[in-house]
UniProtKB/TrEMBL annotation:
<dbReference type="InterPro" id="IPR004045">
    <property type="entry name" value="Glutathione_S-Trfase_N"/>
</dbReference>
<dbReference type="Pfam" id="PF02798">
    <property type="entry name" value="GST_N"/>
</dbReference>
<feature type="domain" description="GST C-terminal">
    <location>
        <begin position="90"/>
        <end position="215"/>
    </location>
</feature>
<dbReference type="Pfam" id="PF13410">
    <property type="entry name" value="GST_C_2"/>
</dbReference>
<dbReference type="InterPro" id="IPR036249">
    <property type="entry name" value="Thioredoxin-like_sf"/>
</dbReference>
<dbReference type="GO" id="GO:0016740">
    <property type="term" value="F:transferase activity"/>
</dbReference>
<keyword id="KW-0808">Transferase</keyword>
<dbReference type="InterPro" id="IPR040079">
    <property type="entry name" value="Glutathione_S-Trfase"/>
</dbReference>
<protein>
    <submittedName>
        <fullName>Glutathione S-transferase family protein</fullName>
    </submittedName>
</protein>
<dbReference type="InterPro" id="IPR036282">
    <property type="entry name" value="Glutathione-S-Trfase_C_sf"/>
</dbReference>
<feature type="domain" description="GST N-terminal">
    <location>
        <begin position="3"/>
        <end position="85"/>
    </location>
</feature>
<dbReference type="InterPro" id="IPR010987">
    <property type="entry name" value="Glutathione-S-Trfase_C-like"/>
</dbReference>
Amino acid sequence: MENKMLTIYGCPNSRSLRAVWALEEAGAEYDYVFVDLFKGAGRAPEFLTINPGGKVPALRLDDDSIITETGAIALWAAEHYPTADLLPADPTERAQAWRWLCFGLTELDQPLWTIAKHRFALPEKRRVPAIEDTARWEFEKAAALLAARLDDTPWLAGEHFSIADIIASHCLAWAKSAKLSLEGSTLPAYLERCLARPAAQRALAREAAAKGKAQ
């Protein structure tokens, strides 16, 4: 089932980097459609037919079915391109990959999105700036657990990079861009290792090129 032509709908500086990165790690061939969220393109009628939630990423398969949500897209890539080893074959490591994938999506992403929503994403009358202190505290607690795991193993699943690392490291990069500190040396070093991967660099370049071409 490899080498399908897929279409990813994305926007730089959003969660779509996770999906593009997973596709690059998988060696998938795909088209990239730039959706300028910052100019309201996510609310355009033509995009709402792709994702009624108005968010990126969205992945169109060759049968025209659509997958949304970064965890689902990453899992799809891992399962459909098994030679990329994005989910370890070892049952113990595979279970850890699932565990830390879920942790990234629920414990790391959630407070970051809360901060973003109450800084700029929600309508102004719905924002509660005071919530940021609590969200920062939540993120720090989750980041400490992540660091403790990475003090014991090179990657979240164990000895092998997995989609859990894509989600977690993207959250750390998001935290840095939001001016949250990453305490100690473990998390910054881990983030640097993840982003240095060729697939991560290709994903960043692909998003930047798509944006540049559209402008």
